[in-house]
């Protein structure tokens, strides 16, 4: 089996475990992008453009993710009081409940892995996954580079 195959299978099983556990907590509408986007919103209001950079998406992609949160009652989008063209995303009260459930579920799954895998093996796994994240899959948009360096290519 190729490494990419086992990685894809592990990702799908992780997603399934998240969905099952969140469903048992009353959140039956889990989507695979939820953990990162929900944790990105935990600090309060976030400009849509900043959220797009954090998620590694285009503004259009981030709008789609945020629309999904809004349709499920987890987030709201408003115009900035400073610049009406800027869209601001914030969690609703139900969204904060969902965020707590997502974080609790992530921690429980993480604890299961840490409790059942040798520390050395876990460290090696982190190294491999960080290599894939940082070296193999380059950021999808120039917005990421602009946000981090302030300079266009």
Task: Give an overview in words.
The chain is mostly helical and 153 residues long. Helix content is 65%, strand content 8%. The protein has 7 helices and 3 strands; from the N terminus they run ααβααββααα. Strands 1-3-2 form a 3-stranded antiparallel β-sheet. A hairpin with a 7-residue loop joins strand 2 and strand 3 (87-91). The longest helix has 24 residues, at 93-116. The protein is globular, with a radius of gyration of 17 Å.
Chain-wise SSE layout:
Layout: H1 3-24, H2 34-40, E1 46-47, H3 48-55, H4 59-71, E2 75-79, E3 87-91, H5 93-116, H6 119-136, H7 142-149
Antiparallel strand pairs: 1-3, 2-3
Helix pairs in contact: 1-5, 2-5, 3-4
Give a short summary of the structure.
The protein has 153 residues and is mainly alpha-helical. Helices cover 65% and strands 8% of the residues. It contains 7 helices and 3 strands; from the N terminus they run H-H-E-H-H-E-E-H-H-H.
Which stretches of 5+ consecutive residues score pLDDT under 50?
A: 142-147, 149-153
Instruction: Note the total helix count.
Output: 7
Give the tally of β-strands.
3
Strands in their spatial order, largest beta sheet: 1-3-2
Oligomeric state of the chains in view? single chain
What would the average pLDDT be, to the nearest integer?
Answer: 89
The percentage helix is: 55-70%
Using only C-alpha atoms, the radius of gyration works out to 17 Å
Helices and strands, in N-to-C order? HHEHHEEHHH
The termini sit apart by 38 Å
Shape: globular
Structural class per helix/strand content? Answer: mainly alpha
| Range of strand content | 5-15%
For the sheet with most strands, the description reads:
3 strands, antiparallel
């Amino acid at each position: 089996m190729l490494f990419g195959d086992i990685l894809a299978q592990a990702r799908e099983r992780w997603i399934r475990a998240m969905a099952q556990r969140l469903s048992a907590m009353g959140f039956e509408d889990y989507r695979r992008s939820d953990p990162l986007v929900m944790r990105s919103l935990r600090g309060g209001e976030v400009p849509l453009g900043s959220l797009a950079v954090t998620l590694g998406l285009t503004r259009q992609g981030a709008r789609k993710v945020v629309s999904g949160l809004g349709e499920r009652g987890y987030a709201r989008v408003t115009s900035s009081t400073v610049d009406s063209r800027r869209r601001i995303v914030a969690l609703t009260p139900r969204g904060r409940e969902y965020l707590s459930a997502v974080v609790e579920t992530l921690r429980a799954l993480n604890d299961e892995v840490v409790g059942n895998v040798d520390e050395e093996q876990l460290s090696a796994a982190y190294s491999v996954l960080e290599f894939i994240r940082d070296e193999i899959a380059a950021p999808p948009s120039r917005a990421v580079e602009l946000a981090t360096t302030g300079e266009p290519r």
